[in-house]
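BUG-484 | component: ligand-complex export | severity: low

The export step for iron/sulfur cluster jobs runs without errors, but we want the raw record kept on the ticket for reference. Input record follows.
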Amino acid sequence: MNKLSLIDWPALIAPNQVKQLQDDCDCACPSTTVLPELSFSRLGEGEVQLASDLQTLPLTDHQCGVWASSTNAPCVVNQSLYAILNSFATPQLISKVTPELWPMVARCTELGLLTLDQVKPSVQKSDVLVAWLHITNSCNLRCKYCYLAKTEEAMTAEVGRAAIDALLRSAELHHYPAIKLKFAGGEPSLNFPLILELQEYATTQAAQRGIRLESVVLSNGVGLTKPQLLQMQASGIELMISLDGMEKEQDAQRTFANGASSFRAVSNTIERAQALGTTPYISVTISGQTAAGLADLVGWLLERDLPFSFNFYRESKYSTNYKELELDETKIINGMKAAFRVIEANLPPRSLLGSLIDRSDLSVAHHKTCGVGENYLVIDPQGQIAKCHMEIERPITTIYTADPLAVIRAETSGIQNLLVEEKEDCRACQWKHWCTGGCSWATFRATGRYDTKSPNCQIYKALYPEAIRLEGLRLLRYGLPQIF
Ligand code: SF4
Ligand code: SF4
């Protein structure tokens, strides 16, 4: 940043709140931290000062990215506003601040860049109760990192309806205005009639209770036909497809049971869906084996305007022998930086803050990585309920319990979804409210502890500044919303 005299540039560009389907990913959404909206008249008395955790990243000669990750996503400010913000390094009484600056003070306080002693952030609980419906245990692929011992077992319509009843019971008891069904497996399209039947049942039952319904199919994308895609569309079911790379990388870790390539089948389904007006959300699992090809895949996705999210490979007891999947830090960081360069050259209008780095969400401050133990039920084909899909073989309760969510919340064994402040290495970390220490299940598998940082910590730390820089450039490119 050079002189402080430039006023030709927008003073403040802030991100829209951009919660996208990434929040679904293959996990559950956490609660978030929010600041209240402020009108000038609500500034009142008291003192205003620069956020104590404000951080800065240069973007151009005239602008820099600024953020206070304890409360919000990064914004872009010009030199003039940057200087004004810094004039609040020493607390100032509101009554002494010149009235021309009040709009700026109000907006920057909403964004967490300034703090007012009478305005405190609050925790906003997720308002969606999420259920992973494991409608089949069979699959037509044999992915190296699959967390399942595949069988022919499938959920019946009777169990599926009872699962929806249980979900709605808990939703009513805990005052959730919305539920979300994730039709999963295995490959859920292998039990496709049940998807439609349960969606219809859930639509009727949720409407009778005044509860909003969201639904998504988590598919490997190899077998969805045109009629199935049309039926999903007509029923209001979203689609998420897993795709880990172009031919070489996808086929290195996701093949058919007979070893045949899956890339062409998946890309055909994606094209078929787009031709019908459905935009599938693409979930990309990055491993040591696929990181080098990530840039090519990202170019392919951006060319087709497909939303996507990156997730890191999680080792399970079934994948331990595939050493090539391990998250070699150098390979992952280099592969992701190459992918970020492709994104920089083709910046999309939508924000990628919630989807670029594994379980991190840089679009909003939060204290837990996911909703495990809080708003997430994983229901197996017999109606047994686990805390997390990675622990589906370790059920805690069943759909026949009066309030399954209460049982899941009260359960102290198994996966522990701690606050980031309870993870000893994360407490003092500058990224803690976006990172929250990573997936608890993966941390426990790697370290035998829940109260410590993610095994991917060094990867995260190397990539967060890059992700912020991308968001800053994206805000500059599209320029909205400009605040001043
Ligand atoms: S895992 Fe690492 S980057 Fe994430 S909050 Fe903990 S210390 Fe920070
Ligand atoms: S514990 Fe890990 S795998 Fe389970 S829902 Fe949370 S982030 Fe996903």
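Assignee comment: Attached the raw record above. The chain has two domains: 12-123+470-478, 125-327+367-391.
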